Amino acid sequence: MKNLTSDELRSMYLEFFKGKGHAVIKSASLIPENDPTVLFTTAGMHPLVPYLMGEKHPAGARLADVQKCVRTGDIDEVGDESHCTFFEMLGNWSLGDYFKKEAITWSYEFLTSEKWLGIDSDLLYFTCFAGDADAPKDTVSHGFWAELGVKDDHIFYLEKKYNWWGPAGQSGPCGPDTEMFIDTGKPACGPDCDPSCGCGKYLEIWNDVFMEYNKRQDGTFEPLSQKNVDTGMGLDRTIAILQGKSSVYETDVFAPILAKIQALSGAAYEGADEQMKRAFRIVADHIRCAAFMIGDEKGITPSNVDQGYVLRRLLRRAIRFAGKLGVPENKLAEVAQVVIDKYGAAYPELVENSKRITGEVAKEEERFQKTIRQGLKEFEKVAAGLQNGVIGGKSAFRLYDTFGFPIEFTLELAEERGIKVEKDGFDEAFRRHQQLSHAGAEQRFAGGLADTGEQTARLHTATHLLLAGLNKVLGGDISQKGSNITAERLRFDFNFPRKVEKDELDRVEEFVNEAIAAGVDVKMEEMSVDEAKQKGATGVFDAKYGEVVKVYTVPGYSMEICGGPHAKNTADLGKFKIKKEQSSSSGVRRIKAVLEQ
């Protein structure tokens, strides 16, 4: 097989699918636009949900991309050989165009052809969906692998737990998948060894998802009117295989980041014991992820809610483990700069926002050094006064609420000392704290559309008018920092340094209702990014020159790059009413509004 760098693999993958008639599209933001159930884009499908459900994509029905993703459910696992919070997913897409035969044939070609990855076909194994009450056994995929010459004992049927890709939220497009694995050379764990056993013999390298069904809100399934293909190949894992490395942290991606940490700390990664290596990996992973979060086109900043809370947790955990390695205080911005240098060519937003990235890392490190010194003192006081070796939930919450000491740190420090923490008690105290601050269930929402129904579409149009009104009233430099739109209400985050006064909110409301009263048709046009700029459309101009985008216009009021859907006419909206304006994070305000009939 070919020994490729990360840059070479990215380019080769996109070149291959461009040759198969795919339009190469830019990675979407880490803040999802179309899934309010997650804080971050966790898979390549999130930005494309409207198109998987039938919306026309401006670039066509065949797409390929490298999507930046963040998964934070297993932060505590980061530090082993494979877990990462940030990763890149190589993907190719068919939106109602080709289906199983082409996807499987091209996957096999890219993996095995000497022109491409050149992996020995004897090292590859494949899985298909075994079928259940919801959907039949996927004999079709099995048959196509067999036609390509794959031996029968290299193909396994597995249950839904392993070979089904569910919707991103509670409902939406889904279907069976077929997965590709490489034999790591480890011995089989027994006669029933297969890719589901987890013994390490089989390592997943690629996944082809066949979206044939829509999962309804009631949990039942219906055939999709448009059958789609969604594939995903993890870049970090794939280059580890190609470079013959046992860990993603030993690849060219992490080499300069680890080298910088070594230079700052004076400690050596190679030859270090597992505890030291874990600390190196945590710092490298978390700073890489933080750089992408801060440098994203929607620019996350550290805070105590939503994405900002996750960012703060990553940075503060990196600071703690950097201290264990002997990295001097206030040096992690230098590690972030290495991440920018490494990824800048592939993700130019990192270079454009480099000062913001290093500045936010430096500010958070300075803030946390003060917090951690005080918090450690308080933790030691609590630990010293224990009678039964258990830190109560109220004490753990006091460390968090009064001294800003994260519960994760309390848990980790307690584990190191053989002390238990009453986590359930902490969770209950935290829940009450959320209720008192009216945060409640909002904490789990991120951004985007809950669905594509008519009422949600109307509120989406109202959100465009809200942004235009804010720019008119507040000075013309307002941009979206996040949104969450359901059928009941909209929530919109935007950059602004102070509280928006009531008279200003009244004028914004008046602007939106004026547009509604005008009864204007909402127009959609497809044009290049350059044309959209020249016409005065708002939005994030991060796509490549010449790429076709959708522009939704409310003539006389708003023009914005957007994927849709929207109301047909502003008269369909009803009366716009702002219910609340508040702080979201540093320099970011939040408005909640509804449409009243």
What does this structure look like?
The protein is an alpha+beta fold. The chain is 39% helix and 22% strand. The chain has helices at 6-18, 49-52, 100-112, 139-147, 160-163, 235-242, 255-265, 274-295, 306-325, 332-343, 348-352, 354-384, 393-403, 407-416, 423-436, 454-474, 502-518, 529-535; strands spanning 23-24, 34-35, 62-70, 86-95, 124-129, 155-158, 164-165, 172-183, 202-215, 221-234, 390-391, 420-421, 447-449, 480-485, 490-495, 523-528, 548-554, 558-561, 575-585, 588-596. Strands 1, 3, 4, 5, 6, 7, 8, 9 and 10 form a 9-stranded mixed beta sheet that branches. A hairpin with a 4-residue loop joins strand 14 (480-485) and strand 15. Residues 437-447 have low confidence and may be disordered.
What order do the helices and strands come in, and which of them pair?
Elements: H1 6-18, E1 23-24, E2 34-35, H2 49-52, E3 62-70, E4 86-95, H3 100-112, E5 124-129, H4 139-147, E6 155-158, H5 160-163, E7 164-165, E8 172-183, E9 202-215, E10 221-234, H6 235-242, H7 255-265, H8 274-295, H9 306-325, H10 332-343, H11 348-352, H12 354-384, E11 390-391, H13 393-403, H14 407-416, E12 420-421, H15 423-436, E13 447-449, H16 454-474, E14 480-485, E15 490-495, H17 502-518, E16 523-528, H18 529-535, E17 548-554, E18 558-561, E19 575-585, E20 588-596
Parallel strand pairs: 1-3, 5-6, 11-12, 13-14
Antiparallel strand pairs: 2-13, 3-4, 4-10, 5-8, 7-8, 8-9, 9-10, 14-15, 15-20, 16-17, 17-18, 19-20
Helix pairs in contact: 3-4, 7-8, 7-10, 8-9, 8-10, 8-12, 9-12, 10-12, 13-15, 16-17
